[in-house]
UniProtKB/TrEMBL annotation:
It is a multi-pass membrane protein. Keywords: Membrane, Transmembrane, Transmembrane helix. Residues 1-127 form the Methylamine utilisation protein MauE domain. This is Methylamine utilization protein MauE. The keyword tRNA processing does not apply.
Amino acid sequence: MEYLRAAGAALIVVVFAASAFSKLRDLRGFARSVPALVPMPAKWVTPVAVAVVVTEPASAVLVLVTPTAGFVLASALLLAFTAAIAAALRRGRRAPCRCFGATETPIGPRHLVRNTLLICFAVLGALAPEHQPPVAGAAVAFAVGVVVAVLVVAMDDIAVVFARSS
């Protein structure tokens, strides 16, 4: 279980760091995309966008410093994202996913699956005992988490490649 926690920590840290960094590169663009997912008064758009961009790296740092708190915050954030995507899909809105920067790829069920898997890792990480595994095993688990995170970040690009080839 401690290896799962190490892999989950790497996964959450890399995913949220990449997500926050990409949103910070175009904060105004991200803020403009927020109402497409979650309808809200115009005065709330910028504060909500800033809150997301601040909370994502905070969760990543917490996972490394106080893992249980970090995994709990990551779970809450992912639940909010998942609920927003599900609500948008239910309303028939296929807004572009700005999860990892500007893209034209519309949100879809695969984003719900991705977030659900990330929630599972975050919850398992929160529930795992805070026991330090042997260094070699932890390093391998952490590396696996980083590889999975890179695949998660590139998921939309990978989906486009497979869509074009079929």
